[in-house]
Amino acid sequence: MVVPVPGRFAFGVVLVISFNFIILFGTLFLHALYKLHQESLKTIILVPFLIGISVFVQQLLCLFFPYVIFALGILVFVPALSVFIISLFYLQPCTTIKSELTHNCVLTAFFSAVVLFYMLVRDILGYGTISFPVPAGIKEFMLFDASMVPFTAFFASVPGILTTTVLCFVIATYCKNKLMIVSRAEKIHG
């Protein structure tokens, strides 16, 4: 979700707000589908619903952050695609709406925190600022002059974020495999 987005924290904030609204309404919609016993139509009905919710959220956010929404353009629909993919693979229906919302809120809170951290690092390393969305555009707080450290601009670029993402996945996979080996060794010897 963050790769094609400009490397500003302000854009990450708007996308996370959009993502959370779409998850909330998507969860309620999926729960209604399961209650109506329409699971077989989930994929067919969910796509237009998510697009509609994305348009609604985009227009709502446009009232508060018009310049940021204009700068994001079509990327405002990226959270809808993310929600659709997550709903296909990860979101499982629970017995009650409360448990389903709680479960999904925990997942989206973690995802939102990771996205915001990623965007914050991109903003700091790439531009030397922390930016926030405001109705008149973006408010920047200068931390250091990023032009004095030439290699940091790489982290704000698309190749930089792709490289960073791949490195994070490699490190996470390596750590997961090592922990799995340790847990197996403890079961065998323990």
Topology:
Layout: H1 9-35, H2 42-64, H3 66-72, H4 78-89, H5 97-127, E1 129-134, E2 137-142, H6 158-189
Antiparallel strand pairs: 1-2
Helix pairs in contact: 1-2, 1-4, 1-5, 2-3, 2-4
Rg, Cα atoms, Å: 20 Å
**What overall geometry do the principal axes of the alpha carbons give?**
flat
- Poorly predicted parts: none
**Overall pLDDT:** 81
Question: In percent, how helical is the residue content?
Answer: 55-70%
* Main sheet characteristics: 2 strands, antiparallel
Q: Note the gap between the termini.
A: 42 Å
Walk across the major sheet and give the strand order. 1-2
Number-wise, the strands total: 2
- Give the ordered list of helices and strands: HHHHHEEH
By secondary-structure content and strand pairing, the structural class works out as mainly alpha
> Number of helix segments?
6
Sheet-strand content, in percent, reads 5-15%
Which terms would index this structure?
69% helix; 6 helices; 190 residues; two-stranded antiparallel ribbon; mainly alpha; flat
Plain-language structure description:
The protein has helices at 9-35, 42-64, 66-72, 78-89, 97-127, 158-189, and strands at residues 129-134, 137-142. A hairpin with a 2-residue loop joins strand 1 and strand 2. The radius of gyration is 20 Å and the shape is flat. 69% of the residues lie in helices and 6% in strands. The longest helix is centred in the C-terminal third of the chain and has 32 residues, at 158-189. Strands 1-2 form a two-stranded antiparallel sheet. It has six helices and two strands; from the N terminus they run αααααββα.
